[in-house]
Design goal:
By secondary structure, the protein is α+β, with helices and mostly antiparallel strands. It is built from seven helices and 17 strands. Strands 7, 8, 9, 10, 11, 14, 15, 16 and 17 form a nine-stranded mixed beta sheet that branches. The chain is globular. The chain starts with 20 loop residues before the first strand and ends with a helix.
Length: 350
Amino acid sequence: MSTDITGYEEDDFNDSNNELFEHHRFEADPGQAMIRIDKFIVNRMENASRNKIQDAASNGHIRVNDVVVKSNYKVKPNDVVTIVMEFPKRELTIIPEDIPLNIHYEDEHLIVINKEPGMVVHPGHGNYTGTLVNALAYHLKGVPIFESEDPRPGLVHRIDKDTSGLLVVAKTEQAKIHLAKQFFDKTTERSYVAIVWGQVKEEEGTIEGHIGRSLKNRMEMTVFPDGEFGKHAVTHYKVLQRMGYVTLVQCVLETGRTHQIRAHMKYIGHTLFNDTRYGGNEILKGTTFSKYKQFVNNCFKILPRQALHAKSLGFIHPHTGEKMTFDTEIPTDMTEAIEKWSSYIAGRDE
């Protein structure tokens, strides 16, 4: 089985472990012609792309003869190329688990899940059980695509552990290829709702800026406005409700980068409410009164995660060619926080 070198959840990494573990090793033949290392590895690894290899090189995960190299390094005869990660290699066996799923739609080709917050999408370092894939393996017993040792069978996209909302999962290889192409071509429609800190000035707008792993903290993604690092990312937003020190917004993704909404909203000064990774679990707007601080802490308890929900999802059905659009209600923890903020502001204005 081939291990994906860049496909792990950010929450799966362990900051305290500085040791690097070898995941892949390739030895160049004595007659090897000089070739860029990203192309060399792609030719030898299943399910790898040059973009993924280049990202790995940028993060210092590719070595030649025990020396870190960049993606433009030219492989020479007898070079020993290794890929190292911060966590030990583990051959994953998907264990079916009887975990309840909120199934929004299902047919013989695909299944649409309304994922609960707190559930990791696929197994990885530190999360080998209790994931959405474990639950799907139980629910879809007998479906060939879920009988392999692929740690992400049927997955064509994902949302963060503490983000709730809609995911589509393929039940056949044909559906997986068709859906994956739609996500790659950016023809899917994805709409999120989020509670963010502060009063968003404009009623609607567009955020553009390359998103990549932070140079200061690899657990965070950050925006590089000049495009010197990261990948092009575009988020369209619209204000839905103003609640004094926080705002309810709709975010529509044009691209699908890791932590895109979380990084983009922080970039424009509106960090997601209670987003621990990006500092939204601090009181970023408001007064210094103790009663206000207690109110915000109570809201944190009601909504103990980043206030982000994948509300709607649209795509072309891979078998019928029909346009399919799904929508969900905003989850209870977010609606309770919205109601609490609305009541607080109404009382303050009175």
